[in-house]
Amino acid sequence: MDFVTLFQAFGDMTFVNFCQHMVNGISLGSLYALIAIGYTMVYGILLMINFAHADIVMMACYFAFFGIRIFHIPWYLTFVGVIVATAILGVVIERSAYRPLRDAPKNSVLISAIGASFLLENLANYVFGGRPLRFPKVQVLAQNISIGDVRTQFICICIPIVLAICLAVLLHIINHTKTGMAMRAVSKDYEIARVMGVNIDNIISITFVIGSSLAAIGAIMWGVRYPGITPYLGVMPGLKCFIAAVVGGIGNIKGAVIGGFILGLGEVLIVAFFPALSGYRDAFAFIVLIIILFYKPTGLLGEKTTEKV
Asked: Options 1.10.3470, 1.20.1280, 1.10.10, 3.10.50; which CATH number does 20-295 get?
């Protein structure tokens, strides 16, 4: 591989091709952002990483598959049911794996989170089997559309719009409702929030409901865009979404969105401009993470925090 070959595609790039890659990059970045918000919300409240979050995405894809293919429920009703079922799953995980360890050392909670992740992966492997399944095709979302000379799937246009709507609703809840005020209080110091009358358990459960619901929405759109489903579907996307949350500033919702777009656009544009580096596409996220941790350990929008003991 020489530099002439490496940069040859850069000179051949047309404006239409560039726009095509930008659409794909924004779409992928929006997916990363939706899932990354779940990571950053749980960390903002509990100062812990919910490693099972990526596997909640995987379970949501299976819920959608069985709802449409096995039970023949219309796709729009299935998607609503998937969001509800995934939110319930998130609360079950919180109450069974995290709540009993609320006052335990951080290492114990971390081990429990990893255990919950392995449990979901192996449970899916046992119940659904290891054979890859294909996410049901939703014709309306999978159809190709043209915007000028740029051709893409309709889902690629829907994903950023859905992200914008979800982000607007979430920020409204956090900044303009009593529940959001309680969430912000708990994120600062949940012991003081408890003394002030905030029901800590309810607020944490609501946080998991919101995070898991966003994971379900992301999983649905991920399945439509990338239809393969396996028990380990969430591993690599989940890892990248966690990196996106760290890059933006873990605990900061807007930072998670920015981190998601950085990774999504970066991955797509690197392959577009330098096809010879396409085999290193997944490495881009880790390179960005190393650079951010080296120069700004708290992330782009992160703030220094004191660990709760």
From this structure: 1.10.3470
